[in-house]
Amino acid sequence: MDTRQQQTDEATALRAGRREWAALVVLMLPVLLVAVDNTVLSFALPQISLDLEPDTAQQLWIIDAYSLVLAGLLVAMGSLGDRFGRRRLLLIGATGFALVSVLAAFAPTAATLIAARAALGFFGAMLMPSTLSLIRTTFLHREQRRLAIAVWATAFSVGSALGPTLGGLLLEHFAWGSVFLMAVPVLLPLLVLAPLLVRESRDPSPGRIDPIGIALSIAALGSLAAGIKHVAVDGPDLIALGLAAIAIASGWAFVRRMQRIAKPMLDIDLLRIPAFSGAIVINLLSVVALVGALFFLTQHLQLVEGLSTLDAALLLVPGTIAMVVTGLGVVRLVRWMPTNRAVAIGLASSMAGYLLVALAGDALSPVIVAIAYGLLGAGVGAAETLSNEIVISTAPPERAGAASALSETAYELGAVLGTAVLGGVVSAVYRSSIALPTGVGAADAAAARETLAGALDVAERLPGELGAGVAEAAKAAFDSGALATSLTGAALMAVAVVVALRALRKA
To answer: What distance in Å separates the CA atoms of residue 403 and residue 180, rounded to the nearest whole number?
Structure first.
């Protein structure tokens, strides 16, 4: 047998069959669910605000508690999956996620809902690293693996975009708790089919469990995400400074420990590879753009334009379709275009979406929102696919869980930054620019300055012209915040374009 024939036979042996592709379908279920759960509250938030009456800080915590816990635990959970079995961790996480979702659906207070969201983050941290690392060990053929990762990344991006759409469809007919109950029918097939279709995989020669390393990773990532969120809500103060100090000290100690021990839970040397670290940064910034835009665009459509949840959700469908098309199409594009250019073009499309919103200003209409979100979605779909493919292909197979966790950590930190920073910009400009008419009582004025939903609730209670004046002032202030946020988002995308062109040059 000649060398060429032997290589052909080896490539054929590595190719995935029907069972592997069926397993990929099963693994997409938790991917879609966790991604949807990151953004599904965008449309439910107005109803939750009216029902549970959270203040500004609680409103952001309802969204961010999930991502904060996820971000802190992802690296630790990825390492545990490498050691004890990625499929096993996936099934444990799916069971816990389904049970807590039922509790969240019937939360009676804002504090209870925040606690449930944190618990969802704990179990969600078991799901995401497991899915991507299982794909890495299931698809051994390079081209098939690239396609499988493209499907994974597309499902992740589409799940984030589908969150508001599904939320709009559910909220048109049911109470806000329905956005949590949808987890149950999604995860039940996973619990039944995963043991039959997905093969278990783990690191064949794992090192010892590193409780110190796990604690340091949680302290570093958790305090970093919490510090970002605190600054967005309360501004820089001693608490923010303390959280930053904890993040820096814990991160430094974690890196030092990973460099010293024989079998580290995370290979720090990977971060020295420009393509790997650049892909992580692009992953983070593209998610910041997506989640941050959803935070204020969905509120603009519902509360400023007065659209129903269903109509507002349908306006985002073209952007979701664009995300699917570019996420899968970019796999073919990079066959004849350098990877860094393909990613840069996608990110430039996202930047154009933000600039379109900024240029529209007071004339921001539902049609402009739909076009802008389409540009944004197209860019995020391409960038997410290629950045995740670079991350998982660069890491050795036995460290697939830890490398996947690092990529997912960037995603979750991006989700926190999207709501905390870009959402914080909206809230800060809103509170500083709202000009309430004279005659509004102190209590009503305080409620109106907290959130747009609170202001509209006050406007409904006040008589005639006074109520109309409060509503008009609140909507104008919110759109001023949207303008500032759009310019911030465009600047972040410009930075991402530069990173893509330089760091991914040899990807």
So the answer is: 29
- Residue 441, judged by CB atoms within 10 A of its CB (0-12, 13-18, 19+), counts as exposed
Return the sign of the alpha-carbon dihedral for residues 34, 36, 39, 45: negative
Distance CA 59, CA 128 (A): 25
| Amino acid code (one letter) for 358 | A
Report d(CA 317, CA 161) in Å as an integer. Answer: 8
The residue among 194, 202, 149, 108 whose CA lies nearest residue 386 is 149
Tokens in use for 270? 């990977």
Q: Positive or negative, the Cα torsion across 90, 147, 167, 186?
A: negative
Per-residue pLDDT, 320: 81
- C-alpha span between 354 and 342 (Å, rounded): 19
Residue 53 has a CB neighbour count (10 Å cut-off) of 16
81 contacts 226 by C-beta, under 8 angstroms: no
Reply yes or no on whether the pLDDT at 348 is more than 90: yes
pTM equals 0.73
Which residues are within 8 A (CB) of 452 and not within 5 positions of it... i.e. 6 or more apart?
299, 303, 304, 430, 474, 475, 477, 478
Using CA atoms in the order 103, 288, 231, 45, what is the torsion angle rounded to 10 degrees?
Answer: -40
| Whole-number Å distance between alpha carbons of 141 and 317 | 34
Asked whether the beta carbons of 39 and 168 are under 8 A apart, the reply is no
Asked if residue 347 has pLDDT above 90, the reply is yes
Handedness of CA 496, 390, 380, 347 (dihedral sign): positive
What's the pLDDT at 93? 92
SS3 41: helix
Sequence-distant (≥ 6) Cβ neighbours of residue 12 within 8 angstroms: none
CA gap 440, 455 in Å, rounded:
11
H-helix segments, 85-210? 86-105, 110-138, 142-171, 178-181, 183-197
290, 350, 490 from 483: Cα distances, Å: 16, 16, 11
**SS percent in the chain: helix, strand, coil, step 5:** 85, 0, 15
